[in-house]
Amino acid sequence: MNELEVSPHDPGTVYVAYRKDRVGDPAPYIYRSTDFGKTWTTLVNGLRAGEPVRVVREDPERKGLMYAGTETTVYISYDGGARWQLFAGNLPVVPVTDLEVRHGDLIASTEGRAFWILDDLSVIRQHADSLASAAAHLYQPRTALLVGGGGGFGGGAGANMVGRNPRSGAVINYRLASAPDSATSVRLEFLDSKGAVVRSYSTKEGTGPSRLASVANLLVTRIGEIHDAVLRVRDLKTQVQGFVTRTKDADSAKAIGTMGGTIVKKLETADPKLTTKAQNGQDIINYANGINGQYGFLLGQVEGNPVLTQGVKERLAELERLWRTLRTEVETIENVDIAAFNKLLQASKVEGVIGKKKPGTVM
């Protein structure tokens, strides 16, 4: 037995994830008992053959909503495990060692790929087959908190963050049977306790709330692009320094060291422009904000105001120009300087080349 889960809805119901792959049987095994363990039912319909199950969990809010972690991925079941379906999203192929539902999020621990979090299970918990035939459906959002900050990107964490945090504020999800055409307007209205409209969003509005949402989405996208660039810059620095160290006794060590040192200096110059130094609580005060922090601050201004101010528009234009310059600087290092360094390595018969790190993804 690998994992035992007592149903949070019924003390007499228990689920077991059972493994036999260590004795030559890689088949998936999930069992359920509804009579305190006297009898058991196998629940493996939809699980891939040859894929042992490591963990099974039942959602603490919706009875019969199940999650299973296997040797390669995550599965979900809406009917108590009678039918399983893949639920991986952008989770890489990796053994899932444990699953927990906390604060309305699904958290997965993996063997070798750190922790992954699926933010906000509200839509999953409200899933119903009948929604497939509905022309439109508005999902009940989970409780939102009004807090300061920049859409989940503030707080001085800066470049230490690899994943993308969830958006601050209320996240509203809705489903349409088909995409609206240009003549159709989709409108969301937020009412107070007396039924009066306090805020609205419409696909027909070129300014106002819908424009606010568009700018906020742009800012979140830019912050993600910058964080990806930071990771690439630091990865390149590590690779270049590694080659310089490994070739210090080679005939071409001087040339490799000189070119490598120049590239490292360029990367070290670019890094603080992109992100704020945040090794301790005082760094955010002692050092200038990188462009990621500036975008994050602007995001906080957009989300904290009912209108798009002229100052926000002007600052956004400034940051967009600055980001284009910085992005070109990073891409030039990647596509010109690193290419020349790789050519030098090859000419010196040094095995291996520096690869470009791809942008990261999150669950």
Task: Walk me through the structure.
By secondary structure, the protein is of the alpha+beta class. Helix content is 33%, strand content 20%. It contains 6 helices and 15 strands. The strands form 5 sheets. Strands 1-2-3-4 form a 4-stranded antiparallel β-sheet, with no helix packed on it. α2 packs antiparallel against α5 and α5 runs antiparallel to α6. The longest helix has 38 residues. The radius of gyration is 26 Å and the shape is flat. The chain starts with a strand and ends in a 16-residue tail after the last helix. About 3% of the residues have low confidence.
Amount of beta strand: 15-25%
Unreliable stretches, pLDDT < 50, 5 or more residues? 149-160
Order of helices and strands: EEEEEEEEEEEHEEEEHHHHH
Helix content: 25-40%
Strand order of the largest sheet: 1-2-3-4
Mean pLDDT: 85
- Please report the distance between the alpha carbons of the first and last residues: 28 Å
Class based on secondary structure composition and strand pairing = alpha+beta
Please compute the radius of gyration using only Cα atoms. Answer: 26 Å
Continuous helix count: 6
What's the number of extended β-strand segments? 15
**Mind summarizing the main beta sheet?**
4 strands, antiparallel
The general outline is: flat
